[in-house]
Structures are given as structure tokens and as C-alpha cells.
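[step 3/7] fold_predict: job queued, chain A
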Amino acid sequence: MPFKFKTIDHVQLAAPKGSEDQARKFFGEILGFEEIEKPAVLKKRGGAWFKYGHCQIHVGIEEPFVPARKAHPAFEIENIEGLKEHLTSSGVDYIKDENLPGANRIYVHDPFGNRIELLEWISY
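[step 4/7] structure written:
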């Protein structure tokens, strides 16, 4: 092939109109992502962008809005047990999933119903 994929630049999740503050609370305050500035030409569309290390989540406004209940991003986590404790203390429910051998894995839903997978590899 004359090209190669390097990495995922960002994941976009949809949200309903006027939900930016909910996105800031969930992705920023609860999950610890830093909000990053959207380019001026894209600000008028609404939404918010977030970054944690090399991971970016772009929350985009979509009308009519329908959450992604099956399709989802998956993030590899360090110290998922600490994350579980943090989610519980923040009032965020999660679903344990033991169907992937070698992974400690959970699912959460953002405030808009989009599914997000969080996992820590415990063996390969």
C-alpha cells in the first residue's frame, strides 16, 4: 500500500442542541478531559472538543439527535479500579463486561446516551 494509518485523530460523539454544559461536566469534570478550542469557523455549529493526552473527543450537535447505543469508542485505561471508584462517587453508573478475555472492561453512557467502552488489559 502506498499509505499507512498512523493513529486515530479523534472520535466524534453526537449530542442534542444546547448540551455543551452537560458535555463539559461529564467529559471535563468527571472523566478529566481538558476542553480545547474549536476552530472559529466550527464554533457556530455548537458542541465542544476535549483532549486527554493523545485522545480527543469531539462532541457535535446533531438534530434530530439519536444516541449511539451499540457503536462506541473504546479507551484503554490505567487503573480501571480507581476509575470505577471515581465513577461511583460521581454518581455515574457503569456496566461490567467480562466477555473479553484478558480485559477488565466496563461501559458507561455519556449524558446523551452514547455508549463508551473503558478497559484495562490485565493479560494478553
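[step 5/7] annotate
The chain has one domain: 11-121.
The helical segments are 20-30, 40-43, 80-89.
exit 0
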